[in-house]
Specification:
Elements: E1 7-14, H1 19-33, H2 37-57, E2 63-71, E3 75-82, H3 109-118, H4 122-129, E4 132-137, E5 143-150
Antiparallel strand pairs: 1-2, 2-3, 3-5, 4-5
Length: 170
């Protein structure tokens, strides 16, 4: 079997109020180690939102499991597993008074991320930042929510799909 040079990372954390903060720090460090800094903002934001969703919405899940898989030149995927069987869903955005997303770096940033999730905008943000978002049931009775980024080359650190025109560069 051919060695693809794939990298894999797994992390378990308590799905509490500071879980999203911990996930951001861990995922950022892993991506730096893999020299994928160009993807870091998008991946960290997506994972943070998915972990915040576990805390906020998955009442049956005290633990969130995070998986990262990078295959150079092919893809990067991030998965968050919990023990709650309810599938994620986006709430209608009508009548909401919160911005669609916020780029912040403050002590209380977890509260803003949870507010986005409560408002139903969190999954929309995740969907906009990755190339593909999906979920599947887990054999333990829970679910796995997956984000996927396609890469063009082994040294590529940015998405293969360019951002729509009119969006600011990060």
């Amino acid at each position: 079997m051919e060695d693809t040079g794939a990298e894999y990372f797994q992390f378990r954390l308590m799905a509490g109020p500071r879980a999203a903060w911990r996930a951001r720090r861990v995922v950022g460090s892993v991506l730096d180690g893999w020299q994928l800094g160009g993807l870091a903002d998008d991946v960290v934001t997506c994972v943070s939102e998915l972990v915040a969703n576990v805390h906020e919405h998955a009442a049956n899940s005290a633990i969130a499991e995070l998986f990262l898989l990078w295959v150079p030149g092919a893809f990067l995927s991030a998965e968050v597993r919990d023990q709650d069987s309810h599938v994620p869903r986006r709430s209608p955005a009508t009548g909401l008074r919160v911005p669609p997303f916020a780029l912040i770096d403050a002590e209380n940033d977890e509260l803003v991320i949870m507010q986005l999730a409560e408002a139903g905008r969190g999954l929309a943000v995740v969907e906009a930042l990755c190339d593909r978002l999906w979920w599947r049931p887990d054999s333990s009775g829970g679910k796995v929510v997956c984000c996927h980024w396609r890469l063009k080359a082994a040294t590529d650190t940015v998405r293969s799909n360019p951002r729509p025109s009119g969006l600011p560069e990060s």
